[in-house]
Design goal:
- The protein is α+β, with helices and mostly antiparallel strands and 131 residues long.
- Helices cover 25% and strands 35% of the residues.
- It has one domain (2-124): Alpha-Beta Plaits.
- A 6-stranded antiparallel sheet has the order 2-3-1-4-5-6.
- The longest helix has 18 residues, at 20-37.
- The two termini are 21 Å apart.
- InterPro entries: Imm7.
């Protein structure tokens, strides 16, 4: 099982005065990438109060589709001022089967962390098997 929930505030750079033209180019490129992902789950890019945001959420049998981790890494590369979080529960991730992981996007880098508030999954979220 691969469950995920996340968001990204898309910013062209970490400077407070983004280049509006370049930001619109980045958003257009992201729209194309998101459309090509063809996800049946939540995968949304929209402008709110003059800023672009991406929201994702889903629960698939395996990590392979859609590639939301790849989307976060792509945003880090093309819009290094962006920031956001992706919470992931992946029971096929060796060494992390009993953890909710958080991918943090900040300043052009995606890092992985254990979500202490939801881990370990057993017994924090679920009872042990057979109880």
């Amino acid at each position: 099982m691969f469950e995920y929930h996340g968001w990204i505030t898309v910013r062209e750079s970490a400077v407070d005065d983004d280049d509006d033209f370049r930001l619109r180019q980045v958003v257009d490129e992201l729209r194309v990438r998101i459309a090509s992902m063809a996800s049946p789950y939540l995968l949304d890019l929209r402008w709110m109060n003059g800023e672009p945001f991406i929201h994702v959420g889903g629960n698939s049998n395996h990590r392979s589709s859609p590639d939301v981790v790849g989307l976060f890494e792509h945003v880090a590369k093309i819009a290094p001022g962006s920031y956001g979080l992706l919470h992931v529960l992946d029971d096929e991730d060796p060494g992390h089967e009993n953890e909710v992981r958080v991918l943090r996007l900040a300043r052009g880098t995606v890092t992985q962390h254990t979500e202490a508030l939801l881990s370990p999954c057993v017994p924090t979220l679920e009872d042990p098997f057979g109880v």
